[in-house]
Design goal:
The complex is a heterodimer.
Chain A: H1 4-20, H2 24-45, H3 49-66, H4 76-98, H5 106-112, H6 124-142, H7 146-156, H8 162-169, H9 173-191
Chain B: H1 3-13, H2 19-31, H3 33-51, H4 61-70, H5 85-108, H6 118-126, H7 128-137, H8 139-150
Classes of the chains: A mainly alpha, B mainly alpha.
């Protein structure tokens, strides 16, 4: 039985309580913890990475302002997730009002989640850069030892917990932890020269 | 940065790091941005694997939010459960019913039981002998009282109807 979801919820509850008592630093921890998830979520609606990031930041600020009313009826991430989706939808509505020629509407935005091909609307330069990154990624994965590749695939594609992977691979959980980390590190080393974090602005 | 710390970041990304270590790691990340960059790179790899799309996160992402909330006023509002609207409606209905009963009684029996404040009731119980004495001692007061009673249109309320509480409205020379 995997108790990780409960553990992460406990951490969130503790951090939320600290923010509600006036500890603004605790909110930074929540931002660090969820920034990538929220940016990825908003990016399903807003394809431009820079805009998606601005909207994700706006969602976090809205969440901070509303946090004193958060009573913990739902998990913090579920609550934050709803705020992020609403912020993204409101952004799209406001943008379509500003520019009536803009063809995207809320229904279109909701279809994006199930239509990843819509991401191909990016510029040719970006498309090329993305393709280069994907090629390097594939090379990096193919160069991994079998057990590392299996461990990271089960984690990323099957969404299995470490305990489940350990059972599937018939090895201790500690070994799974190590294999997944080593796989990520090997991929990171190959990709780092190509990845320009934050330079897209 | 040592490998143990990096492994913790990898576990943290997968929600597989325990509570105490997660908190410790977050504290370290806030001070050391290299750790946050590592988390963001691992997250980008994860996203790339699943979605075939590179989605970088700006280095100043957290700092921008932090700077903005630093300017926000903080209101220490305790968690409170909002009063259910049903109770509010019941309270309002009860108040209206009470006002209706009092008003109806006042209209039906205008002289029988004027609404007096408890203090006045107590005063009434204790003061009649004193009033008699006053009239006997000061005959002018008795004449003034007679005059006032003859020209008096008074309304006493306890403030529940739409009148001023304990207001006395006297019309002198009303025949003019």
């Amino acid at each position: 039985m995997n108790n990780q979801p409960r553990m992460t919820e406990q951490l969130d509850e503790e951090l939320v309580a600290r923010v509600q008592q006036g500890d603004k630093k605790a909110f930074d921890y929540l931002v660090i913890k969820y920034q990538h998830k929220i940016v990825q979520l908003v990016n399903r609606y807003i394809k431009d990475p820079s805009e998606a990031q601005d909207v994700a930041q706006e969602a976090f600020i809205k969440a901070y302002r509303a946090l004193d009313g958060f009573r913990g009826d739902a998990a913090f991430y579920t609550w934050l997730y709803r705020i992020a989706i609403n912020t993204a939808k409101n952004y799209l509505v406001a943008r379509s009002r500003r520019n009536s020629n803009y063809e995207i509407d809320i229904q279109d935005a909701e279809k994006v989640e199930n239509a990843p091909q819509l991401h191909d609307l990016e510029s040719p330069d970006n498309h090329l850069a993305n393709q280069q990154i994907l090629d390097v990624l594939n090379d990096a994965i193919n160069g991994l030892p079998e057990e590392m590749r299996t461990a990271i695939m089960l984690r990323e594609f099957e969404g299995m917990s470490y305990e489940e992977i350990a059972e599937a691979m018939d090895c201790p959980v500690g070994t799974v932890r190590s294999r997944i980390f080593r796989a990520r590190e090997a991929i990171d080393i190959k990709l780092t020269p190509l990845l320009t974090h934050g330079d897209f602005r | 940065m040592n490998d143990e710390l990096k492994q913790h970041i990898s576990e943290f990304l997968d929600d597989e790091l325990d509570h105490a270590d997660s908190l410790k790691l977050l504290q370290s990340m806030q001070k050391n941005h290299e750790l946050t960059d590592t988390l963001n790179r691992y997250a980008a790899i994860s996203h790339l694997l699943k979605n075939k799309q590179h989605l970088p996160i700006a280095k100043d992402f957290t700092a921008t939010i932090s700077a903005q909330i630093e300017q926000e006023a903080f209101y220490l509002i305790p968690n409170r459960k909002p009063t259910k609207p049903v109770y509010k409606m019941l309270a309002l209905a009860a108040s209206i019913a009470a006002i209706a009963v009092i008003t109806t009684n006042t209209i039906k029996n205008p002289t029988e039981s004027p609404q007096l404040a408890p203090q006045q009731v107590a005063q009434q119980k204790t003061t009649p002998p004193a009033q008699t004495n006053d009239t006997e001692q000061y005959p002018l007061n008795a004449r003034i009282n007679d005059y006032l009673q003859a020209h008096n249109n008074s309304v006493y309320t306890n403030g529940q109807a739409d009148f001023r509480p304990l207001a006395k409205v006297t019309a002198y020379n009303s025949q003019k």
